[in-house]
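W.,

You were right to be curious about this one. When I first looked at the sequence I had no strong expectations either way, so I just let the prediction run and decided to look at it fresh. Below is the sequence, 518 residues in total, followed by the output.
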Amino acid sequence: MTKEILSDLKTVCDSLYIALETNQPYDDSLCCVLEDLLLHGLTCEREKLWSLLKTVSHHSQNEFLENMENLSSHAGFVRAWVRVTLNDGAICSALKLLSQDDGVKQYYKGDAFISIEENVVSASNLLKSLDKHELNFVCNTVVLNHWRNEECQDDTCFNDNEEIEEDCQSGFNRRYSSGNRLSVSCEDDLEDDLDSSRTSSSTDIPQEKRSSISSCPGRVSISESIFSENPVIRWQNSQSDLRISSISDLSYLPEEEGTGTLSCDTEERLQYFSTITNEKGLSSQMFKCFSCSSAIGNQGQEFKVCIYDKRYYCRACFGNYAYCIPSKIIYNWDHNKYRVSKKSFDFLTQVHTLPNIDLSKLNISLYNHVPELAKVRDYRRMLNMVREYLVRCNSKDEVSYEVIRKKLGTHQYYWDSPHLYSIADLTKSFSGQLQSYLKKLSQKCVHHVYCCKKCSSLGFICEYCQNPKIIFAFELQTTDQCAGCGAVYHKSCKRNGPCPKCIRKEYILNKNKRHITT
């Protein structure tokens, strides 16, 4: 059995190391292996284990664990101790102390893992490969209050008619494959209603029943870990229902006119997108038409001024055209059509659907004055964040990454670059068409994340309040994301200064530097 534990420990350490190196999500399989390591060969009741661990732990850590509001049993304290010790990078020292303490060893058999010094040394060597990385296992959650082989025996967590799916895997996968990244959380209210001008109210996202829970001992389901207190989550005071019958129900925006083929003077004419130009006088053009060079003004024919480029044109070249002016939209949100020359009209038609307006560089403050545009930005930010979940999801349903990508077509920038727009996008934002479309699309994607076991396991918990419910970065009304490490916290809990995760990363970095220098 000791060889089996070492083999499993090597497997999970290797997998976790790869996940950390590639910045991928990870589950709590390592914690499960260490729990079995501590329980192996124990001669007393398992509840006694917490008292043994307290003898080799600092009293401040013991008090910290016992004061966690969601822990209420010896099993919870032991399992949380494993996770806290891993997060602090002290697991190797703790195992060594346990193996050398005669008061602890008297409660273990002679062939127990913790009683054999060689086993502890081998385990420590495997765990040291993770020293340079920061671990972030969740500790304050009710799911830890039961030993793993007891968790699936409590039917009160599920509805009577909920189907329990037997997991027939064997070996390592059966014992430790939790499918659960316990460094995540869920907020009851997704305050997502951006329909009233900048006044948010909570959006109803009914949570569908999680129907597949593994019943094997040692396997923790994401459904169990997140929703054990309230298996069927409902959002109160709903304004809308995110359940759209099919992704095909979304009315995707048709391509508007615009060939996308640009003329040779594109660079020159694009400069007027971000500049409100002024007339320079006929003398700047030598009293000649800007298009055909025929004489205009005092000695020539009548002329017209193009509002887009403020150039002068003869009547023949000017024509009878009108178009909205990009710079007036960007700076004044003015969507009126103005008289333009045929040359400018042709150019604006060509670039109508090209995303060449970056509001983050041109006029970021426009969002503060235009509520409908701020809604578009928020929906696109949500899509940008949700996309990261869909990329990692192997689901083949209608909300998979590939399906959405193909549906978006030439509008990939909707979820790639939240501040990038075409003239057509700004026009649709003014009419309300774009935010209506993005709202339906983002709601469908968000609904998938909440209901998909893999996607929902990639959330976070707020380390300030330690609320075990999952939160996500795309819950823009209630959460904030740290720009340094990407961790997510409640807005109401966020404080000034570096976040807890950044502090731990800096501490580990400094510790490694000191270790290298010594």
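Here's what jumped out at me. The radius of gyration is 31 Å. And, maybe more interesting for your project: Residues 371-392 form the longest helix (22 residues).

Coffee later to discuss?

I.
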